[in-house]
Amino acid sequence: xxxxxxxxxxxxxxxxxxxxxxxxxxxxxxxxxxxxxxxxxxxxxxxxxxxxxxxxxxxxxxxxxxxxxxxxxxxxxxxxxxxxxxxxxxxxxxxxxxxxxxxxxxxxxxxxxxxxxxxxxxxxxxxxxxxxxxxxxxxxxx
Length: 142
What we know:
mainly beta, 6-stranded mixed β-sheet, 10 strands, 55% strand, globular, 4-stranded antiparallel β-sheet, single chain
């Protein structure tokens, strides 16, 4: 089984809820996730979450099987860069930048990655930019 590096980005503004689905016959292993969240002036603290979700064929019974929280409450009118990464020294957070440990996470058929503000303070106006770094392989057996 060969794994190939791939970058996936979603830069559409006015949304703090992003979904990523691997192609039907592929498996993704998350290497890192970069999120830049710019909050509006709407009062309230944002709480960022990455969730691997599993669903059945009819898109019912969505179940989270792995969640990672940023453990930071982002206030209104602030821009923060979040780096969810597998291996690094997590004691070197810079001003406006947070490094968060990323456990081993896989996406495959009937799963998706959701990145969202748990508080949903201003989901259609906050700006979220996301770049995923994944390793991709075929889910077909040879």
